[in-house]
């Protein structure tokens, strides 16, 4: 129902998009995107107790609960042609990083789309991509790890100490926590014909509910990058 209303509300906007020959931000789409992200954040916070086991996912959920000063802004809208060019650039960089890693990393190298697929993608005038920026203050996981587990060399070891960290993030310690400010971005695709609107991945930004979970629990940031397993400074 929401998609139908969104589509009807944007009929005039679509005509303007075609006539003007360029993409512009539609208020209804902007509102939909911000509401969707906020809804995903609330869904993570409201994960039922029975689904929270003593594992790394529960630690992530707790970090999302503790995140504060969350701000979301839709900053830009681009064409399919512009988006695929960004995607291909990020794909090349990602694959180059993975090829330099071990067997696990190399197994995750992605095959680029064919020239025909790329050309077809570029020709799609019905789909545009909205870019959003999200900022927040999140628990400084690096400082906590240094304090309680100075022997840790990188974030890949987090699995074996998650219960210790989870205990420290309890309500009674809330005032003792150190925070860090972070900023991330992501994309939503919007089909101007059907009104369909959802997360899109450029391979670097936040995509989907799991991306929001990662961003607010630090896993989405460069210093905690699972692909490069960067050392804790």
UniProtKB/TrEMBL annotation:
Keywords, alphabetical: Signal
Signal peptide: 1-25
Protein name, per record: Lipoprotein
């Amino acid at each position: 129902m929401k998609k139908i209303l969104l589509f009807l509300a944007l009929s005039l906007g679509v005509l303007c998009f075609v006539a003007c020959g360029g993409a512009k931000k539609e208020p209804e789409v902007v509102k939909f995107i911000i509401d969707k992200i906020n809804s995903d954040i609330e869904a993570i916070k409201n994960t039922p107790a029975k689904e929270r086991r003593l594992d790394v996912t529960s630690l992530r959920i707790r970090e999302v609960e503790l995140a504060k000063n969350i701000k979301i802004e839709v900053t830009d809208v681009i064409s399919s042609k512009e988006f695929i060019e960004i995607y291909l650039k990020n794909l090349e960089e990602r694959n180059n990083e993975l090829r330099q890693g071990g067997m696990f990393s190399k197994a995750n190298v992605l095959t680029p789309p064919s020239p025909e697929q790329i050309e077809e993608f570029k020709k799609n005038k019905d789909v545009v991509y909205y870019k959003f920026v999200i900022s927040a203050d999140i628990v400084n996981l690096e400082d906590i790890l240094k304090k309680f587990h100075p022997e840790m060399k990188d974030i890949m070891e987090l699995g074996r100490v998650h219960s210790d960290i989870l205990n420290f993030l309890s309500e009674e310690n809330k005032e003792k926590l150190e925070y860090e400010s972070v900023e991330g971005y992501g994309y939503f695709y919007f089909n101007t014909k059907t009104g369909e609107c959802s997360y899109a991945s450029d391979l670097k930004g936040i995509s989907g509910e799991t991306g929001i979970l990662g961003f607010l629990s630090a896993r989405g940031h460069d210093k905690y990058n699972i692909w490069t397993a960067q050392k804790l400074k």
